[in-house]
Amino acid sequence: MIIDKIENLWLYEKLNPRFAKAFAYLEETDFNQLDSGKYTIEGNDVFALLQEYETKSAADCMLEGHQKYIDIQYVLNGEEIMGMTSFANQKVLKPYHTDNDIAFYDGEYSTVKVAKGNFTIFFPGDLHMPCLKVNAPARVKRLLLKSELCD
């Protein structure tokens, strides 16, 4: 798990060979000109999901984990709390689904506030719970970059 400011993005480029393309897309794209949806960067290896949503209470969210993709989540507008923990045999609420590369879990987690200009990186083995409200439900615009693990 990584949380940092967008100014430090360059520090993480060498963690995965596909990060360079994902980060270039993030830095070169005007997201005010795009609608929410999926955008292909490099086939199924690297793609982006531009999302807008209302933050929620923890009772309405679940920890999630991935096996195939690394999540890079960049907050474009607003702020949210994200739950995070390492996988350690948490109770499975919804088993892994290969088509969506996701499983849902129940267990303890720590939280961190992620505001406009911050990003997180979640690797397989990192469980996370995005979309949590800070004080009250609020609108958030986020870019979710998905980068497939390299062999």
In short:
This protein is mainly beta and 151 residues long.
Give the tally of β-strands. Answer: 12
Largest sheet: 6 strands, antiparallel
Tell me which oligomeric state these chains represent. Answer: single chain
Number of helices: 1
In the predicted model, the low-confidence regions spanning at least 5 consecutive residues are none
The fraction of residues in strands falls at: over 45%
| CA gyration radius, whole angstroms | 15 Å
In the sheet with the most strands, the strands line up as 1-10-5-12-3-2
Structural class: mainly beta
Please give the share of residues in helix: under 10%
H/E element order = EHEEEEEEEEEEE
Report the average pLDDT across residues: 95
Layout of secondary structure:
Blueprint: E1 2-5, H1 19-28, E2 37-42, E3 46-54, E4 63-65, E5 69-77, E6 79-86, E7 91-97, E8 102-106, E9 110-115, E10 118-122, E11 126-132, E12 139-148
Antiparallel strand pairs: 1-10, 2-3, 3-12, 4-8, 5-10, 5-12, 6-9, 6-11, 7-8
Can you put this structure into words, describing what you see?
This protein is mainly β. 7% of the residues lie in helices and 52% in strands. Strands 1-10-5-12-3-2 form a 6-stranded antiparallel beta sheet. A 3-stranded antiparallel beta sheet has the order 4-8-7, with no helix packed on it. It has a 3-stranded antiparallel beta sheet with strand order 9-6-11, with no helix packed on it. Strand 2 and strand 3 form a beta hairpin. The radius of gyration is 15 Å and the shape is globular.
